[in-house]
Amino acid sequence: MNLFKQVRFALPFILFLFIVILLMRGLSLHPNQIPSPLMNKPAPTFSNDFKGHVTLLNVWATWCSACAEEHDFLLQLAREKEVILMGLNYKDNPKAAIRWLKQQGNPYQLVAYDPTGQIGIDWGVYGTPETFIIDKKGIIRYKQLGPLTQEVWEQTLKPLIQQLQNESL
Amino acid sequence: MIPELGHFAIILALCFSLVQIKTGVMQKTAAMGQCLFLVFAMACLMLSFLTNDMTLIYVREHSHSMLPLIYRIGAAWGGHEGSVLLWCLILSGWTVAFIVFSDAALSRSFFSKILKIMGCISAGFITFLLATSNPFKRDFPHTLITGNDLTPILQDPGLIFHPPMLYLGYVGFAIGFSFAIAALLEGKFDPTSARACRPWVILPWSFLSCGIVLGSWWAYRELGWGGWWFWDPVENASLLPWLSATALIHSLAVCEKRSAFIGWAILLAIITFSLSLLGTFLVRSGVLVSVHAFANDPSRGLFLLIYLAFIIGSALLLYGFRIHLFYRSHSFKLFSRETLLLINSVILLTAVATIVIGTLYPIILDALNKGKISVGEPYFNLVFVPIILPLLLLMGLAPHVNWHEHAFNKLWKKIKYTALISLVVGLLSPWVFGFPFYVSTGLGIAIGVWIILSTFQSRLELRHCAMVVAHLGIAITVLGIVVNKSYSQERQVKMLPGETVTLANYQFIFNSVEETQGPNYQSITAHFTVEKNHQAPQALSAEQRIYPHNQLLGKTGILWNPWRDLYLALGAPLSDGSWSVRLYYKPFVRWIWAGGFFLLFGGMLSLLRHYLKRRESSHESF
Amino acid sequence: MKKILFFLLLLPSIASAVQDYYHFDSLKEQNRFNALTSQLRCLVCQNQNLAESNAPLANDLRNQVYEKIQQGQSDQTIIDYLVARYGDFILYQPPMNVMTIGLWFGPFLLLILGLGGLIFYIKKRE
Fold first, then answer.
1. Among residues B468, B550, B539, which one has the least CA distance to residue B509?
2. DSSP type of residue B517
3. Which of B352, B503, B516, C49 has a 20 to 30 A CA-CA distance from B125?
4. Distance between CA B398 and CA B406 in Å, rounded?
5. How many domains does chain A have?
6. DSSP string spanning B252-290?
7. Nearest Cα to B343, choosing from B261, B412, B267?
8. How many of the other CB atoms lie within 10 Å of CB of B83?
9. Which residues share a beta bridge with A140?
10. How far is B591 from chain C (nearest CA, A)?
């Protein structure tokens, strides 16, 4: 059997091997997490509010059940005072939001209201909760999709925030 | 008690499948036993749903105490675990069917090898079921639970028929796969075996055609925007084996009649089932995003990947080492039916490769850290259509072309009038359907007509009835797609009760809005009357439903006849008291699915002929 | 039947001027809107385009596209606006660049190679 024939017969198996390797790699990816194009770009709104300190902007709503999950952790963060917490109330009824914060506790130093979702679009919000980390110059440095947990905080966010705190203005 | 029995039944089925792998007298019994216990397990699962046994986590997640009875049965396969059980059950069902109905002319050793391989596949998948996807997992909550409810979009008759049909299809290709492996192991695949194999490819192919069509119809009714195919990864997963199986059916015909293309048929049989397994993996592993996907779990994905790597990998390795035994010299000229049928395979496999490339490309780029892109409908429509077009043209040519050799000028004399008539019909189409004239539309209609005319022109003998019906089905679907895509009209409006909207010579009169209660939902129904040229009023209504846990679902209203659908979808109420309403005029949309049913019918005709021929030859042998 | 008659009697005699949900001054603008929304992805239900998604975000983004067309912005400006906020992923039709050459040309290349290889192979056997 000449070489050409051998290659021809081995081709299906080789192709298949490539596909399996690709899929193996694909198992560890997260296809539904969309990276933010705003990384390392200035914050699209509230730019003056961010200058001078490291801020966490948390996008939330009263109708979002996952936001309720992370609320306790946010309250804990607010107590620790490591970083400024700012809330963006997204596509919600502001009165209901205020009532909710009164009942459940308010971890935010500042809350912005975005009932139409226009500010959300400028920030590229597509699914609450989302949390942005903005540095002292007002540049967006990280976007967290999904609720904040102790684990996410310890592994990813806390080291980044400490690094940003050490950066000068 | 019942869930434990069901669980135990699955374990027994696994044991039987392992016995099936050993050759011997026990093989057939083992296969039957496996099927019996899987049927029992499914019955236990259904019973748990019927009795609202909320101690089963699976029932809790996919059912609700107020869910109507029929959907509680369908919910048995509405989630991942239950659908894996269905997969295993249908695989064992096919094994039993093969035992009962297979051609007696098939050699004993061949038959036994096939059962062995099916046993391996079963054993692997039942292990997957037990290890990662056990539907009988229980816990005992202290509080009263009503259940999370079956996703409202699944509460539709489509749930009862579409998944079982699909599974009957792509799980059934395991038999063809087993034929191929058995042939490789034995070192031969004679026309008798090819003839024995063909019905076991055609039958699943027919079911799959039906399943795909049912899925498309269901999506059309449920999703509210009049679309019927979205190139969603789950849809692609069902189309891939269908394309490959179509190539296989045609190649097997050549195996039978000319004793050629054997190696090619074997490869296609392996590829077809591999695509089924690949599809099963893709929709459950979380590797791709899809509106259809089951709850994605990478650990399940890993298990499935290892399983399919083993099955397909060993098959392709075996192919690589043994295929040279099947090299037969069969000569034919460049312009002959053999060539055209080979081109059929090349085009269909290119279509398969195209869909695989498009579906996997985002993963490739993501894995290389080159960012995330999305590949969807726009891409597939642009790329798939030009590739499939030559095949449609060939469909009109190939039935006229002889085996071995055909003179092109003789062919041209035969078909030139048919081709001309088709072109003329295509050109005249705007007079029927409306202006303006689009070249693509005219061409599309011409192709559909060309296939119909050409098929009738060539093959009016009874023995070709199956092919005629199946090819007609494709032509009908093509015509449906072309007309529907070109001449659909839609309007999205804000309406107050009492107002009328006109679309495509139909008047849609918004009468009233009503609140009603369903078995497990509250409904807001908008009642319309539809008239054509202010005559022949018909009622039409659309709903917005609220299910438990505040899940919303819109229910469309459709008035249909063979020529057009009038489609109504109710949107959200607006601040001024009016309602957002979407109206669609969809000509020829039913033709798209009618074609699929022709395929089913054609497949059944082919089986009937096969069965009659077998009876005939077994009578002769006496 | 009775119900229908009842409702027919309630009908006003003249069809009132019903407003389109999105009103366009010209067919060209309407086509632009349809083309744009069917080529942009809904990020919430990720395998649907903006035109056919029920998600609230899709509704918002459709409104955005509509308003921008009314303001006279070009297709490219609108696309740039959305890509700046949501990234390339919002483009439902993958871009044509160095990375996606395989995606766009691969299928056709395969077809040509496949058919060419087949013809070559058959001629060799003759």
1. B539
2. E
3. B352
4. 11
5. 1
6. HHHHHHHS--HHHHHHHHHHHHHHHHHHHHHHHSSSS--
7. B261
8. 21
9. A134
10. 22
- CA torsion through residues B349, B352, B357, B363, sign: negative
Q: Partners for B (CB, 8 Å, 3+ pairs)? A: A, C
**Domain residues for A92?**
47-166
CA angle A55, A59, A65 (to 5 degrees): 135
The answer, yes or no, to whether residue B107 has pLDDT greater than 80, is yes
Which residues of chain A does B270 touch, with a Cβ-Cβ cutoff of 8 Å?
Answer: 12
Confidence at B621, pLDDT banded by 50, 70, 90 = low
In degrees and rounded to multiples of 5, residue B2 shows phi and psi of -65, -45
Q: Residue A122: its pLDDT value, please?
A: 92
Which pTM does this prediction carry?
Answer: 0.92
What are the φ/ψ torsions at residue B46 (nearest 5 degrees)?
Answer: -65, -40
The answer to whether B542 and B524 have CB atoms below 8 angstroms apart is no
**Chain B contact set for A22 (CB, 8 A):** 360, 363-364, 367
* Residue C11 banded pLDDT, cuts 50, 70, 90: very low
Q: B267 or B401: whose pLDDT is higher?
A: B267
Count CB neighbours of A116 within 10 A. 12
Residue contact B349–C114, C-beta within 8 A: yes
Domain covering C2-95 assigned CATH 1.10.8.640 in the classification: yes
Region for B332 from its dihedrals, namely left if φ exceeds 0, alpha if ψ lies in -120 to 50, beta otherwise: beta
Q: How far off is chain B from C80, nearest CA to CA, in Å?
A: 16
A38 found inside a domain? no
Cα B320 to Cα C113: distance, rounded to the nearest angstrom: 22
Distance (Å) from the C-alpha of residue B155 to the closest C-alpha of chain C? Answer: 18
d(C-alpha B234, C-alpha B243), whole Å: 15
Assigned token pair, B244: 């490959």
Specify whether the CB–CB gap between B166 and B238 falls below 8 A. yes
Q: What is the pLDDT of residues C15-73, one digit of tens each?
A: 446 788 888 888 889 889 999 998 898 888 777 889 888 888 999 999 999 999 999 99
Contact A22 B323 (CB under 8 A): no
The 10s digit of each residue's pLDDT in A51-64 is 888 899 999 999 88
Per residue in B243-272, pLDDT (tens digit) is 999 999 999 988 887 777 888 999 999 999
Rounded mean pLDDT of chain B?
A: 90
For an interface test with A, the pick among B244, B267, B287 (most A C-beta atoms closer than 10 Å) comes out as B287
Q: Is C15 in contact with B492 (Cβ distance < 8 A)?
A: no
Which chain B residue is nearest to residue A16, measuring alpha carbons? B313
Q: Is the distance from CB of B261 to CB of B346 less than 8 angstroms?
A: no
Distances (CA, A) of B389 to B243, B335, B348: 14, 20, 11
Looking at residue B52, the DSSP 8-state letter turns out to be T
Helices (H) and strands (E) in chain C, counts: 5, 1
Domains in chain B: boundaries = 1-155, 162-401, 489-589
